[in-house]
What we know:
Layout: H1 4-34, H2 37-54, H3 63-82, H4 103-121, H5 125-136, H6 141-148, H7 152-174, H8 177-180
Helix pairs in contact: 1-2, 1-3, 2-3, 3-6, 5-7, 6-7
Amino acid sequence: MPGEHDLMSDSHDLFLETLRRYERPLIRYAHGYTGDLEDARDIVQDVFVKLSQNLATLDHERLAPWLFTVCRNRALDHHRKHQRLVVMETETLDLEPAAGPSPEEELEKRETATALRELIETLPTRQREAVRLKFIAGLDYQQISAAMKTSIGNVGYLIHHGVNALKDKWQAHEQPQSAKLKPAMV
């Protein structure tokens, strides 16, 4: 029978592995709610404090949905507490410094990321949540299903329609201004 030290060591290893695997996706996910990287980091820190307090009682197979649910709840609490609109920053969500893009490429990347985040915000709530969990947090359909408390089929439906709506919105966004303005004369 394993001793108390072995169980503590296993819990410690699981905590560190969870931190390594989910810290960055959780920060990106929280950032989508807060618009502020430091606030997102604070929220994720709270998530891991709560994880450390509940690790012994959690179902390890459902750990990712639990983490993202707690993160979403903390982000929403933060938003309510600060009573401000979420202003999306132009800062990229990639937390590691890029190796060598030119300033023009970096600016274009930031503008694209900002435009895409703004378009995501226009999606209906459930589609927006599913798209964030899939593409920002990197969860699979089963994990999204658990986090959103809906069927896997519904997750597929939400993501499919969310991505199609984003594609349409992006194409409209990318049209040159002159193409949007049709001549009045025939």
